Hints:
The chain is α+β, with helices and mostly antiparallel strands. The chain is 46% helix and 14% strand.
Amino acid sequence: MNRLLLLLLLALSPVTLLMGGCNGTTDDIGVVARVNGRPIALNQLEFQHDLLHMDGAGTFVPSVEALRREYGHILADLIVLELVEQELERLGLQVTDEEMVEEEAQVRADYPDDAFDQVLIEEYIDLASWRRQLHYDKSRRNFFQNVLRPQIKIDYLEADAYYKKHLKDFRLPESYRMVVIRGAMKGPVQRAVALYRESDDVAGVLEKSPDITINELTVGAGQLSEDWKKALDGLPNGEVTPVLETRSGFEALVLLQKLPAKMLDPTQAYPLVEEALLDRKLSEAFEEWLSKQLAVADIKISALLLEKAADDDTAGVEDDQAGQGADTDLEIDSGDGMGEEMGNEDDGDDEQALSGESPLDEPEPLDDAQDVSESADDETGD
């Protein structure tokens, strides 16, 4: 996704030439950017920045330069997401209120009772900002599914060529399918193993052994720990290893099946081939769409977010602003004049680019205590 970011940064870099501040109008209070006239609020920018440091809040004090870089990449994310939402509205495919109610209900369903609201309180998460980010995330997914995906075609010859070129990717290594029984004490693990071997009824075992966890796993031979390798070496299918002591308690492995290495044939590999080709084509389609949007977008950014806006006291820059009556908002026209600054003919030599990561790497919706509202890398796979 670095190419997507580059497209955005190329479009935004000219705005760093102006050093103006906010123009002080009521409409611009609390606004850090405008995308085709639609505002991006400072509180949304701060909300995402807080999420970025949620796990390590209070453990360090970032420099002003680091803060500007972080805010820059977050703003790049928000600008792209705002363009996505505007495109959905233009096509009549905008996210509905009913969809948002369903999205929030799905997230809340993962939390018992009022635990979700308690997380918001404990983590100082603003519900309105979280809902705005959830809306962005739903818009992003809808855009890929309903706008870009119908444009993608994958024919058999293309899939066959990909399969032949990437044969090594479709070789499944030797692996082990097993049940792992874990507990804090050795005795309960031993009893749970005996119960499992009698009936293979996981629910029944768990009901009788509330302090035990049981999981079925398939693990490649190369991914086994040394302890597991030794315990499974020569073990017949259906047999159980001795109870092993771990740093967190005890565990036993029930070997269900040792699976030999094999090569997937074209029919078996097709779902994987299709997924790989789809991810690549979606990424390419998004790049093309984004470059076209940036070519016509009217994007204004507050000068206070730019790396040198608040601390460059160069006399020449100040003189230029005084002489030109520089606009206090920063406007870009990234069409044929990309690289030119609207309302300012002095390009100067101080181009600074906002820096960050992929415009699609946004936080996912809250599905555990520290996860609020991806990245598009999971959408695009790039």
